[in-house]
Amino acid sequence: MHWASHSDHGFLTLLIENEVGGLQVEHKGKWFNANAIPNSFLVNTGDQLEILSNGKYMSVIHHVVVNNKATRISLAIANRPLLDGLF
Ligand SMILES: O=C(O)CCC(=O)C(=O)O
Ligand SMILES: [Fe+2]
């Protein structure tokens, strides 16, 4: 089971997750596990960065796989643009 696949609206998203993992990123139609490195942030590129870099840094499509065997804990720190303005 996984949460809905999506890209983040903001510039960058910083993620910390526990050892359960579960984040997957899409590349050329395939899904890859994005296992966090202990004591580090995992950084997702967002839509705002893709737009401001004219597509040089693509916004990553991702989702999270979960199960009923292990408790997944994650902390996401995101900046998001106002929906009615530029920033
Ligand atoms: O929990 C995670 O690792 C990712 C959460 C996420 O994709 C989000 O908050 O946009
Ligand atoms: Fe996300």
In words, what does this structure look like?
The protein is mainly beta and 87 residues long. It has one domain. The chain contains 1 helix and 6 strands; from the N terminus they run E-E-E-E-H-E-E. The strands form 2 sheets. A 3-stranded antiparallel sheet has the order 4-1-6. The longest helix is centred in the middle third of the chain and has 6 residues. Bound molecules: 2-oxoglutaric acid and fe (ii) ion.
Summarize the topology.
Elements: E1 12-17, E2 23-27, E3 30-33, E4 42-45, H1 47-52, E5 62-64, E6 74-78
The structure holds 2-oxoglutaric acid and fe (ii) ion.
Please state the CA-atom Rg, rounded to the nearest Å. 14 Å
Q: Give me the side-by-side strand order of the main sheet.
A: 4-1-6
The proportion of residues in beta strands is 25-35%
Task: Output the number of helix runs.
Answer: 1
Instruction: List each distinct ligand once.
Output: 2-oxoglutaric acid, fe (ii) ion
Helix content: under 10%
Q: What pattern of helices and strands is seen along the backbone? A: EEEEHEE
Arithmetic mean pLDDT: 91
Report, as a whole number of angstroms, the end-to-end distance. Answer: 34 Å
The oligomeric state is single chain
Which structural category fits the helices and strands? mainly beta
Uncertain segments: none
Sheet with most strands: 3 strands, antiparallel
Q: Which term fits the overall shape?
A: globular
Keywords: Iron, Metal-binding
Domain Fe2OG dioxygenase: 1-81
GO molecular function: metal ion binding
Pfam family, one: 2OG-FeII_Oxy
